[in-house]
Design brief:
Elements lengths: L1 E7 L9 H16 L9 E4 L12 E8 L3 H15 L9 E6 L4 H10 L6 H5 L4 E4 L2 H9 L7 E7 L9 H11 L3 E2 L2 E2 L2 E2 L9 E7 L2 H13 L6 E7 L5 H4 L12 E13 L5 E5 L4 E4 L5 H7 L4 E12 L2 E19 L9 E3 L6 E3 L5 E2 L4 E6 L4 E3 L33
Length: 413
């Protein structure tokens, strides 16, 4: 029987990891029902990162299974989550399960959860069986996720301390696997290793399971051997929030938003962050560590832009925290040309008018025109280390992972 099981909010700032809970549960499912029980790879589903009560990355997980006894699976899931969830701080774990088909309301809730704040009652009315607390929201969203475009991530887990992988080794790994693995390194900063107290040793993102396994083998050959690992199908690096997410015309706190307008002002704060305002009145901010994105916005007063990011309250206003920008052009002021011959006009002095340099005609009134210069048109991303999980890198083929199933590749150990 087809069963879709979602889990969320089992980690905390002090440790734990929801993907590790899914890994342990997947191992138990393998023991009881074998590899044929898996209809797909375990799923890692990123949701709206602007939610104030998230723990860290705001990710939920899901398993798509074919098992003979959904009730036994449910009891197993509750047992594993109860044993591994860290009930501290904001952590409030939840489980959701749908038998047969995924409810349409769960699919809608996924679209909402990508970009908006979703209520617990909405998750409870989505047509799935649920257990637990606020984590039910992400759990329902995970089983409703649309992963027709996806990427993979091989997540390796550790026992004991996390040995630091040197940038030179990651650079060599990327040279041998790019573009089928990506987002591994930002200059000398290693991006595949987290820095928190969670059990993740490293995570390699890619487009095919085979390249991920090859990358793992390269690291293992240099002594970086994990205690266990699994390959997840994920909506990371797919722009799922732009393709599927619900984005309102009006700004709402803690939602994802796209603002269009002319940058009326922009300046650096004492901390070197960039703050500014659009001609619509919406204030925005760009952290200094966004690198080229913050620099471009600082220099772009008068530009017509689209700004993408999350809305958060700050100093009594709702600020857009910019994550990427599309600069369409800069408005420049030009003097009207001669209506008779098209020649340029030169000033004859204050109050004396303008004279055409070509035909000599004198005008006592000359209009000032604002023209959009599209020469600086550019799509700007922050430095790779500051990319959000859902941001799609340029030229990434997110349909390639559709060709792979867990039946034709090793995906867990």
């Amino acid at each position: 029987m087809r069963v879709f099981l979602g889990i969320d909010d089992t980690d905390s700032h002090g440790g734990g990891c929801t993907t590790y809970v899914a890994y342990v549960l997947a191992k138990e499912v393998l023991k009881r029902w074998g590899p044929q029980a898996f209809l797909d790879f375990p799923r890692l589903v990123r949701l709206n990162p602007n939610i104030p009560f998230k723990t860290r990355g705001n990710a939920a997980v899901a398993l798509a299974l074919d098992v003979p006894d959904p009730d036994e699976l449910w009891r197993l899931a509750v047992e594993v989550v109860t044993a591994l969830a860290r009930r501290e701080g904001k952590t409030d774990p939840g489980i959701a399960m749908a038998v047969g088909e995924v409810p349409e309301r769960a699919k809608v809730l996924y679209r909402m959860a990508l970009t908006q704040v979703v209520s617990l009652s909405a998750a409870e009315r989505a047509g799935a069986t649920t257990w637990g607390g606020r984590g039910k929201i992400g759990a329902v969203a995970a089983i409703g996720a649309d992963l027709r475009e996806s990427t993979f991530e091989l997540l390796a887990y550790r026992e004991g301390d996390r040995a630091e992988i040197p940038p030179s080794l990651v650079k060599a790994m990327e040279a041998l696997t790019y573009p089928f693995t990506f987002h591994n390194l930002d200059r000398r900063r290693v991006l595949i290793q987290p820095r928190g107290p969670d059990p993740v040793y490293y995570g390699i993102r890619g487009l095919t399971p085979h390249h991920l396994l090859y990358a793992k083998a390269l690291l293992e050959g240099q002594g970086y051997r994990p205690a266990g690992w699994a390959i997840f199908r994920t909506n990371q690096a797919t722009d799922a929030h732009l393709r599927h997410g619900v984005i309102y015309d009006e700004p709402h706190p803690y939602s994802y938003y796209i603002a269009k307008g002319i940058i009326a002002e922009a300046r650096r704060t004492k901390a070197r962050h960039v703050v500014g305002r659009l001609d619509t009145g919406l204030p925005f901010a760009a952290y200094r560590h966004l690198g080229p994105l913050a620099t471009a916005l600082e220099k772009c007063v008068g530009c017509y832009v689209e700004l993408y990011g999350g809305l958060k309250p700050r100093h009594g206003s709702l600020y857009l925290y910019v994550e990427r920008a599309h600069i369409h052009g800069r408005y420049v002021k030009i003097r009207q040309r001669c209506p008779h011959c098209g020649g340029s006009l030169e000033s004859l002095g204050r109050g004396k008018g303008w004279k055409c340099r070509k035909c000599g005609t004198i005008y006592y009134v000359a209009e000032t025109l604002w023209v959009l210069d599209v020469t600086p048109s550019e799509y700007i991303l922050p430095r790779p280390a500051e990319w959000r999980h859902l941001l799609k890198p340029p030229n990434l083929d997110t349909t390639l992972p559709n060709h792979y199933t867990p039946q034709n590749v090793q995906w867990i150990e």
